[in-house]
Design a protein that fits this description.
The chain has helices at residues 17-28, 40-52, 67-81, 104-131, 154-174, 200-205, 215-226, and strands spanning 8-11, 32-37, 57-61, 86-89, 137-141, 180-186, 237-240. The chain has 247 residues and is α/β, with parallel strands linked by helices. 47% of the residues are buried.
Length: 247
């Protein structure tokens, strides 16, 4: 039996990067995978690839900052499949900037996409799981920047630190309902976003293992947290960073 067989999962930000890797990993492990993003062109390409491989996949447009869209997507998934077992709140944006150079508009935008969306996905995902009597798993994508400070990532660090502690609070709230909530903390990974990093060689030097991670490594963590293998884990932090946060 595959590790996620008979499970229905929603994954946000699945058109590329870590979200795409998680979607491919979930599909391979037998989950019915609902992939969401605002980039429909790329999302539909991922959907087509997964269907060609024999996976059960369903693409839906979702602006993760919209409460109304979250409600619609969760309702559509429950109506279509009769249940919801996993939500992976992966969608996010990254902007560089210190306190002096970060505008208030940029600050609000980063927190809206990276933190508010996690609240919405957790709230409405858990509500659907509980109504259907499911013992579900919610996985929130934080970062090593949510564990340690970075003077050039003030808004991003604030948002990811918020995800970290929100996850713990939600885990305490939902534990008696049988719904687990955990966070994943990647360092810099080999994704499209690496092209936006001003000085990647500095990040490489700060990584004890001496190389960046592969998105599939994050996918494996998300598979573990979505599966019954992690049935006794909630409110925990899965750090996958090559030792970055250990320094």
């Amino acid at each position: 039996m595959k590790r996620l067989e008979n499970k229905i999962a929603i994954i946000t930000g699945a058109a590329q990067g870590l979200g795409e890797a998680i979607a491919r990993g979930y599909a391979k492990e037998g989950a019915t995978t609902v992939i969401t993003d605002i980039n429909l062109e790329k999302l539909e390409k991922v959907e087509s690839d997964l269907r060609d491989s024999g996976a059960e996949v369903f693409a839906i447009a979702l602006d993760v900052t919209s409460e109304a869209q979250w409600k619609d997507v969760v309702n559509e998934v429950v109506e279509k499949y009769g249940q919801l077992d996993i939500v992976v709140n992966n969608a996010g944006i990254g902007t560089h900037g210190n306190l002096e150079t970060t505008s208030f508009e940029s600050w609000k935008n980063v927190l809206n996409v990276n933190l508010d969306s996690v609240f919405l996905g957790t709230k409405y995902g858990a509500e659907a799981m509980h109504q259907k009597g499911n013992k579900g798993s919610i996985i929130n994508m934080s970062s090593v920047a949510g564990l340690v400070g970075d003077s050039e990532l003030v808004a991003y660090s604030a948002s990811k630190g918020g995800v970290r502690l929100f996850t713990k609070s939600a885990a305490l709230d939902l534990a008696k309902k049988g719904i687990r909530v955990n966070s994943i903390h990647p360092a810099y990974m080999n994704t499209e976003l690496m092209k936006l990093v001003p000085n990647p060689e500095d990040m490489l030097q700060a990584t004890p293992m001496g190389h960046f991670g592969d998105p599939d490594m994050i996918a494996q963590g998300a598979i573990y947290l979505g599966s019954e293998e992690s049935a006794y884990s909630t409110g925990s932090e899965l750090v996958i960073d090559g030792g970055f946060a250990a320094v």
